[in-house]
């Protein structure tokens, strides 16, 4: 895709987007794997590097495959979804770093706590002019006040993997 193909307004396709996480538990002997099933977003590219966007992830949509654990993750111990229903990712800029790669400068907000991140992101054009972005990062959950931890069984590091498909609007 040519630079002009990237310029414009984009809408997230939630049906082809996945935000997943992996966290060690039981002192590293097992992992909790989960996804957030409700995500929406948009982006705008007006010039090379001048990219903005926003993802809104419904914290209550967390799914690990075990209902009781999912309810605990929604509780005050973890995401506190009653007080903080959204996890937000605000994209502030993008810098091309190689063929099919950009670094996204983002601000992540979880439970009202913010952290600036630089996310190496693979970008791939899809048939029909759509674009797929994929990134992985590791965060310390304590930074965001996601504290629940029975008997020290859970590690603080959480790996986040996101694959997002955007459809051009204009």
TrEMBL record:
Family, similarity comment: Belongs to the UPF0312 family.
Pfam families, per the entry: YceI
Residue span, Lipid/polyisoprenoid-binding YceI-like domain: 9-167
Record's protein name: YceI family protein
SMART domains cross-referenced by the UniProt entry: YceI
Superkingdom of origin: Bacteria
Organism: Mycolicibacterium diernhoferi
């Amino acid at each position: 895709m040519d630079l002009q193909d990237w310029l414009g307004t984009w809408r997230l396709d939630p049906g082809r987007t996945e935000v997943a996480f992996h966290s060690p538990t039981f002192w590293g002997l097992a992992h909790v794997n989960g996804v957030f099933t409700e995500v929406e977003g948009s982006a705008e590219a007006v010039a090379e590097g001048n990219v903005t966007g926003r993802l809104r992830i419904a914290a209550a949509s967390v799914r690990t495959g075990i209902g009781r654990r999912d309810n605990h993750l929604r509780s005050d111990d973890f995401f506190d979804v009653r007080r903080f229903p959204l996890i937000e990712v605000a994209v502030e800029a993008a810098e091309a770093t190689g063929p099919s790669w950009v670094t996204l400068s983002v601000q992540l907000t979880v439970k009202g706590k913010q952290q600036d991140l630089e996310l190496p992101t693979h970008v791939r054009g899809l048939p029909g002019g759509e674009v797929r972005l994929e990134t992985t990062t590791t965060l310390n959950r304590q930074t965001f006040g996601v504290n629940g931890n029975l008997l020290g069984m859970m590690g603080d590091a959480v790996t986040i993997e996101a694959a997002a498909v955007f459809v051009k609007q204009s």
